[in-house]
Amino acid sequence: MALNKSMHPRNRYKDKPPDFAYLASKYPDFQQHVHTSLTGRPVVNFKEPEAVRALTCTLLKEDFGLTIEIPLERLIPTVPLRLNYIHWVEDLIDGQKQPRRGIDIGTGASCIYPLLGATMNGWYFLATEVDDICFDYAKKNVEQNNMSDLIKVVKVPQKTLLMDALKEETEIVYDFCMCNPPFFANQLEAKGVNSRNSRRPPPSSVNTGGVTEIMAEGGELEFVKRIIHDSLQLKKRLRWYSCMLGKKCSLTPLKEELRKQRVPKVTHTEFCQGRTMRWALAWSFYEDVIVPSPPSKKRKLEKAQKPLSFTLPEAGLKELQAKASAAGCVGSSVDVVTALLEITLTELRVLHKRVPCREQEQSLFLTAVENTWIHGRQKRREQKRQLRELPRAPHGAGTSSQTSVTTAAPGSHSSPQNQPLPTEKSNSQDSNVNLSANETSRAETSTAGELEEASEHAAGEDAGMESSTCPEAGQEPDAAGEAPPVGSQTHGPVEHFLFKCVLNVIPEDRDVVVELHWVEGQNKDLMNQLRTYLKNSLFKSVAKV
């Protein structure tokens, strides 16, 4: 569950996701929807409506003692997401254990928000519904859980939101309203046509729900604007108005609408769970309410600072070490992986320099001057084709000739006598190792100005990188890492580059983790491309052993 760490801190599923194996052993209705993956883990197919319904009903029973029924043709809620909204409302009204009154606009067949709010906090709810089937199921779910004294389910006319629902209750002041509005404007949007970025993968879960639950004229944007319109007439009849949004792009125009209407208190938040993101907006006409801060930039900053990484498992490391040992290279798995990475970086003409790091780790400061890793497969195929078409070099060809070919740009053409033989690949790699060592030696003579530049970037742009690469507080890298390309005699700083990063090779249990920490540059996607290339090159080396 990729986003679970960003769930509301009080969400019970934040640090303890549902145990499918345990739930399957306890609930036979759920067991039939749990399968074993290729890795031996119990999994649920979220594209099956029956499986999603079984999980929701099981979690409500196991964790909240609630028994509900939901028809497959109506919206099936996910419990962790609904809990996020409940906890945020707790933050809005400042105190979840006091008796509070709330309105759930369009409660759905599950009536999940009132049932959770009443069970957890003893809240009173007015739950509205326009759909006949949803109304009948919601009322039944309330009754069978003995919640009729806390939850009142009312049937309201189509297109009714707050005004008509409160006509008969002119004296009551509600603390909040909740709403999960229809996200889509039409059936094409509901199917993902013209409403989903083409680069995004398809949804990982099924989209269930009746027409009134998932579609409304103008989509969620116009639906919430209608709630805003009602709130301008009701004003202090509710202390907080709120709604959940399925699209981040809806936030800005809705906040602008509230600003135009001079609503004094406005805030928003994010709901994260599994692979799903939702947003929520709240506003109030009370000057004395406590306004929770919008999501801080901390999560975004952590995401920006989080290194790109990949793991080499123990089995692959043993094969790499065996290959290195046969070639006369003895060292730990970290040393072997670092040496192979340095060979690949040299071939790619990515400037690199070893910098101080923690014991048993290795760190390289990388400066990518040009993108030599893109379309690498096509380039390698072209090189192999050229080798097949050229005559074999005479026996005893000089090492210098091989070196010149190895360090040439991918796809470049050299004379036939300078091409290495396929059987001489190991010699070419040995040359690369020696060249990389020479590179490091030259880079150690970098100027103090380069050192200052590297340390400033490392400390200022990526605070996490400093602790990963320096064994002691205040210790700085001894060079900027801008080693010249192979064969170059220049020692000055590189003025134009794509990006700079720090590559850490770290032992983790019996595995080795390779991390790339961003320092500065033009585009982080380029660093991700390089990470993928390095990972593939290492795994390819394992496959050849």
UniProtKB/TrEMBL annotation:
<feature type="binding site">
    <location>
        <position position="180"/>
    </location>
    <ligand>
        <name>S-adenosyl-L-methionine</name>
    </ligand>
</feature>
<keyword id="KW-0489">Methyltransferase</keyword>
<dbReference type="GO" id="GO:0001734">
    <property type="term" value="F:mRNA m(6)A methyltransferase activity"/>
</dbReference>
<dbReference type="GO" id="GO:0070475">
    <property type="term" value="P:rRNA base methylation"/>
</dbReference>
<dbReference type="GO" id="GO:0005737">
    <property type="term" value="C:cytoplasm"/>
</dbReference>
<dbReference type="InterPro" id="IPR017182">
    <property type="entry name" value="METTL16/PsiM"/>
</dbReference>
<keyword id="KW-0963">Cytoplasm</keyword>
<comment type="function">
    <text>RNA N6-methyltransferase that methylates adenosine residues at the N(6) position of a subset of RNAs and is involved in S-adenosyl-L-methionine homeostasis by regulating expression of MAT2A transcripts. Able to N6-methylate a subset of mRNAs and U6 small nuclear RNAs (U6 snRNAs). In contrast to the METTL3-METTL14 heterodimer, only able to methylate a limited number of RNAs: requires both a 5'UACAGAGAA-3' nonamer sequence and a specific RNA structure.</text>
</comment>
<feature type="binding site">
    <location>
        <position position="129"/>
    </location>
    <ligand>
        <name>S-adenosyl-L-methionine</name>
    </ligand>
</feature>
<keyword id="KW-0949">S-adenosyl-L-methionine</keyword>
<comment type="similarity">
    <text>Belongs to the methyltransferase superfamily. METTL16/RlmF family.</text>
</comment>
<dbReference type="GO" id="GO:0009896">
    <property type="term" value="P:positive regulation of catabolic process"/>
</dbReference>
<dbReference type="Pfam" id="PF05971">
    <property type="entry name" value="Methyltransf_10"/>
</dbReference>
<feature type="binding site">
    <location>
        <position position="106"/>
    </location>
    <ligand>
        <name>S-adenosyl-L-methionine</name>
    </ligand>
</feature>
<feature type="region of interest" description="Disordered">
    <location>
        <begin position="376"/>
        <end position="491"/>
    </location>
</feature>
<dbReference type="GO" id="GO:0003723">
    <property type="term" value="F:RNA binding"/>
</dbReference>
<dbReference type="GO" id="GO:0051254">
    <property type="term" value="P:positive regulation of RNA metabolic process"/>
</dbReference>
<keyword id="KW-0808">Transferase</keyword>
<dbReference type="GO" id="GO:0006397">
    <property type="term" value="P:mRNA processing"/>
</dbReference>
<feature type="compositionally biased region" description="Polar residues">
    <location>
        <begin position="398"/>
        <end position="448"/>
    </location>
</feature>
<feature type="binding site">
    <location>
        <position position="82"/>
    </location>
    <ligand>
        <name>S-adenosyl-L-methionine</name>
    </ligand>
</feature>
<dbReference type="InterPro" id="IPR010286">
    <property type="entry name" value="METTL16/RlmF"/>
</dbReference>
<dbReference type="InterPro" id="IPR029063">
    <property type="entry name" value="SAM-dependent_MTases_sf"/>
</dbReference>
<dbReference type="GO" id="GO:0005634">
    <property type="term" value="C:nucleus"/>
</dbReference>
<dbReference type="GO" id="GO:0043488">
    <property type="term" value="P:regulation of mRNA stability"/>
</dbReference>
<keyword id="KW-0694">RNA-binding</keyword>
<keyword id="KW-0539">Nucleus</keyword>
<protein>
    <recommendedName>
        <fullName>U6 small nuclear RNA (adenine-(43)-N(6))-methyltransferase</fullName>
        <ecNumber>2.1.1.-</ecNumber>
    </recommendedName>
</protein>
<dbReference type="GO" id="GO:0120048">
    <property type="term" value="F:U6 snRNA (adenine-(43)-N(6))-methyltransferase activity"/>
</dbReference>
